[in-house]
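So, can you check this one?
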Amino acid sequence: VTCLSAHMTSGGGTRFCSHWRAEMQEEEEEDGEEGWLLDSLRLYNDLHVFELQEPTRVITWTGESRVCVAGYDRRSRNEILHLLLPARLSAKENQGLCPDRDFKVEHGGFSDRPVYSLKHVLETSLLVTSGPPDGSLQVWRVEQDETDVIRPLGSIPMAGGDEPTWAKIATASSKPTWVLHGQKVSDVQGTEIESGKTVFRTASTSHDELATLEFLDRATALACSTKGQLFLADVRQPQSLLGAAEDVPAAVALEGGRWCAAVKRGPLEPIGEPPQIARLSSGGCVVLTDPRNMASPLKAATGCVPASSLPGSEFLCVSFAPQLEECLAVSGFDGTVCIYNTQSWGPAPQEGKPLFIHRGHVFSNMESADGPALVTAHTWHPCKPRTLLSAATDGSLHVWDWADPSEAD
C-alpha cells in the first residue's frame, strides 16, 4: 500500500488514491458498525433504537413508564412530547414478544423557544421549561382530557433575567407548588408557580454562571457553578446566604474547564444514607463529595474523556445510578455514554476506567454530512438497575440495558 501511494504523483493518481482511501475508511466504518451490532448480542440484555423528528437535549421522567422530550432548535418552534415507553420496556420483567415495540405519543405541545431544560413538578401534571434567549421559565400542563395537549399556562420572569444564558431549574416532591431557578449563583430564587410570588431568594455575592441546581433534601438547595464550586442554601429561610461550601480540590482545580454536577439522594427518612454529589469537568475529571464534609472529596478520578472526544462542553452530563451502588454515567464528550464503577476510587485522583461504553450513537449517523453524533442527554431508568435512555444530535433515542461484564462468564 505504501509503495502504491508513493508512486501516485499525478493529478489522476492523487484522485485515485484519495478515492481509495475514502473507500478503505468507509469499509472500516462499516466493519466497525457490523462488529458493534454483533457485539451487542453479548453487551446488552436489551437494546432499542428509535428516531425522533428533531433531536432533544432533555429526557425527563414523569413516572416509571413515561418521559418527556423536546426540541432545542433556535430557528423554529419546538415540539414537547410526552411519550409512553413500549410495553416491553415499561414491564418490570421481560415479557418476551410484545405487540407495542415503539414509543407512543400521549401528549404534545409546541414551544416558541428552544427547550434547554425541562422539569416535571412532582405529584402534579405540570412541566416547567427554560431556554434561550433569557432566564424566564415557561409553565405547561399535561392535559388529562381527550385533547392530548401539553398546554402553556404562562411564564415566570427572572429578576435580571436578560442575561444571554438560560435558567437552571430544580423541583422537589416536598415543594410541589414552587420551583427553584436561576442563571447565576447570585440570582437563585424560589417562585410559587401559581401566583408567581418569590418565596426564596439567595444572598450570595458570587456572579458565576450556574451549571447545576438541585435539591439535596427537603431543606437544602445545592448549586454548582460552571467553575466547579459548590454552594448551599437553607430554603426554609426567605433569604438564605448561598455560601461557598468549598473550593474545587486543589489536585484537580488546575485543569480549569467547565463543570456540571449531579446529586444522589438518600432516603427521605431521618435515618439513612446521606446524599452524595458528583461533579464532572470538561477535562474529564470526576469528583465525589459527601455534603457532610465538603472540604475533602470522597473520591476522584481523571481521564474520564473518551479518546474520540469532540471540542465543546455544551452537553456535559453526569448521573448516579439510582438502583446500583458505586455506579455513575458520563456523557457529552462524543457519541458514547460511559459507565464507571467508583468502588475502587479514592480521595487522591486516579485514572478512571469505564466499566461499560455505549457506542450505539456513534454508528447511528455515519452517513450524515453533519459529522459525528454527539450525545446530548442520558438518564437512568428509575426502577430497572442497568437500563438507560440516551439521545444524540442526530435525533437518535436509544434505550439500553447493559450487561455487567463481571457476570459475562
In short: The helical segments are 2-6, 11-43, 87-90, 250-253. Residues 11-43 form the longest helix (33 residues). The chain has four helices and 30 strands.
